[in-house]
Specification:
The complex is a heterodimer of chains A (303) and B (279). Chain A has 303 residues and is an alpha/beta fold. Chain A contains ten helices and twelve strands. In chain A, α6 links the parallel β7 (158-161) and β8. Chain A starts with 24 loop residues before the first strand and ends with a helix. Residues 1-5 and 9-13 of chain A have low confidence and may be disordered. By secondary structure, chain B is mainly alpha-helical. In chain B, 55% of the residues lie in helices and 9% in strands. Classes of the chains: A alpha/beta (303), B mainly alpha (279).
């Protein structure tokens, strides 16, 4: 990492995965912000430390999307985040998709690649949604074996994100966090801890969000996601169209106090605000990261 | 129930065109279907299983409707929201998305409108709908079609006059020629500007050029002769051969100027690849 690409603050990263360097606070790269990003990037005033690319948006033959990736990559680290790996499906893995993902990685040179712990389609038909899996031993072994094949194909470990969910299975034999950890251990992959998704799913299924957060080991966490959600009747829906809620900020603070600094991303994909407003949201995450670092340093000095 | 059966069952419910409740009621064995749901998805005091699944079913349809509404903005505005909604419902039943990216979900809509029995209603109401959809999809495709270096006028300045005739003319991948029976450009303009569709649509062939320049998709209607000339370029020709062909179409004395005028315009539009010079 060149000096220009170092995080803006002097956080102290502790015991994270060796293949997921601490990047600071990032935001999703969105079309409406391209002009701001390029203009600010060229004068080294991005206001954030890194970008997350939605992989599928850039898995195209040419045109503006690929030019933007090349330009952004000149002044900021990026990570690639996919929605269609379909890692939990009972369909065979899509070799063509993996080839295209690999090709994009050659261009984007991401710090890491992530997708979701879910299934998105079956029988070759894509539902374009992040559907939960039954939390069973069968599913653990099925997904872990597939993660292994993906990691072999890409030549790197990937991170899997916990999804927001609105349904669960009668035959679930373990908690969601036990399921996530079992796969991460079995496949030796990373975790993208989406704190908003923990909050949303905890509400929708009635489990303890704190217990979930407290169970996640630092050495598996590549990254954290923060986002806003919506209320729909008795349920919370992961819409990414609002600011991060206070409940999610509190949960994030708890996660950072436990885990220490983790690369954190603000997701805002619908009703997208101005780039400056996004930076404000990122700054709040930054202050929590810095608070955790100060505390760790104080403890270190005191001992 | 195996993971496979779990997923195919849920996917069928989510894709049901009129919601989960109706899908369960209209199942060949409604009681069995309801029992299957009860043993598969958990109900609790917050929400019953059917309503939980319904969240996914709604998200599925409206996500795809949203994407198709963007890809086919003009068609949607001209046929109206309600008809477009019905069109997408029947389209997704026949042509579910099979690509990992939503970008390609609408790829088969023009063909569906043109020939599927379920699209008969829209064909009757809007005979131009399939062609307008095809035109809009061409614009979607050209947006992120393969890149390459554009042949610029200055690059030709170095050519000796006698070398000009041998210049290879080839259409760049980012320039696409399409012919229609309906004035898709007028329809598109009306549909994207919220105007009334043009009167007297379907009066004869309309030759369109759709291309990308400076990352923006553009289109223009071609005169018949320029369209034929560009078809020859699409198949690859030389400037001399183009002049010779032009001489068979117009007065022999006017042919060189006509061909030179075309070349000038194609260079200005950025329709030719720089690689043509090295051929």
């Amino acid at each position: 990492m060149s000096d220009a690409m170092k995080p803006r603050s002097s956080y102290r990263a502790t015991e994270g995965p060796p293949d997921a360097p601490f990047l600071g606070v990032g935001v999703g790269l969105r079309t409406v912000h391209y002009a701001d990003v390029l203009e600010r990037g060229r004068r080294d005033d991005l206001g954030i430390d890194w970008f997350e690319l939605l992989s599928e948006n850039y898995m195209v033959p040419g045109g503006r999307p690929l030019r933007i990736v090349s330009e952004v990559r000149e002044f900021a680290p990026v990570v690639m985040h996919g929605v269609s790996l379909n890692i939990g499906s009972s369909d065979p893995l899509d070799a063509r998709y993996l080839d295209e993902l690999d090709r994009l990685a050659d261009l984007a040179r991401p710090s890491w690649i992530s997708d979701h712990l879910c299934w998105t389609g079956v029988e070759g038909r894509n539902l374009h949604d992040l559907l939960p899996l039954p939390y069973t031993e069968e599913a653990v072994m099925h997904v872990a074996a597939r993660v292994g094949r993906v990691q072999d194909r890409l030549g790197r470990r990937i991170a899997l994100e916990n999804v927001s969910s609105y349904m669960s299975f009668v035959r679930d034999g373990m908690s969601e966090w036990e399921f996530l950890l079992a796969i991460a251990e079995e496949a030796d992959c990373g975790i993208l801890l989406d704190v908003n998704n923990v909050f949303v799913s905890a509400h929708n299924h009635g489990f303890d969000a704190n217990r979930y957060i407290d169970s996640i080991p630092r050495d598996r966490v590549f990254q954290i996601h923060l986002a806003g959600h919506s209320v729909s009747g008795a349920m919370l829906i992961d819409t990414h169209d609002h600011p991060v809620t206070e409940g999610v900020w509190n949960l994030y603070r708890r996660a950072i106090e436990r885990l220490g600094p983790v690369s954190t991303l603000i997701e805002w994909d619908d009703e997208i605000p101005t780039y400056d407003r996004l930076i404000e949201e990122a700054d709040r995450a930054r202050s929590i990261l810095e608070g955790a670092t100060d505390r760790e340093q104080a403890i270190h000095v005191a001992s | 129930m195996s993971l496979r059966e779990t997923q195919t069952t849920i996917a069928d419910w989510i894709r049901a065109p009129e919601g989960i409740a109706k899908a369960l009621a209209e199942d060949s064995s409604p009681d069995l279907a309801k029992a299957k749901l009860a043993t598969l998805i958990r109900s609790d005091e917050t929400l019953e299983a059917r309503a939980r699944l319904e969240i996914y079913a709604n998200a599925y349809f409206y996500r795809l409707l949203g994407v198709l509404s963007e890809d086919y903005e003009a068609l949607r505005n001209l046929v109206g929201e309600e008809h477009f909604h019905d069109l997408v419902t029947s389209y997704l039943l026949v042509e579910p998305s099979r690509h990992p990216s939503l970008r390609y979900a609408g790829a088969r809509l023009p063909g569906f409108i043109a020939s599927h029995a379920a699209a008969e209603g829209i064909r009757e109401r809007a005979p131009w709908a399939a062609e307008l959809a095809s035109f809009e999809w061409t614009r979607v495709d050209v947006f992120d079609i393969e890149d390459g270096e554009v042949l610029v006028r200055d690059a030709l300045a170095a050519l000796a006059p006698e070398a000009f005739g041998a210049l290879t003319l080839r259409l760049a991948p980012w320039a696409v020629l399409r012919s229609f029976e309906h004035p898709v450009d007028d329809l598109w303009r009306a549909g994207t500007r919220d105007e009334e569709p043009p009167i007297g649509v379907g009066d004869g062939p309309v030759h369109m050029l759709v291309w990308r320049r400076a990352e923006r998709v553009r289109h223009r209607r071609l005169e018949a002769l320029e369209s034929l000339a560009l078809r020859r370029v699409e198949e690859q020709t030389t400037f001399a051969a183009l002049c010779e062909w032009a001489a068979t179409q117009v007065d022999e004395n006017e042919a060189p100027a006509l061909a030179a005028g075309w070349l000038e315009r194609w260079l200005a539009d950025g329709l030719l690849p720089a690689s043509a010079l090295s051929s």
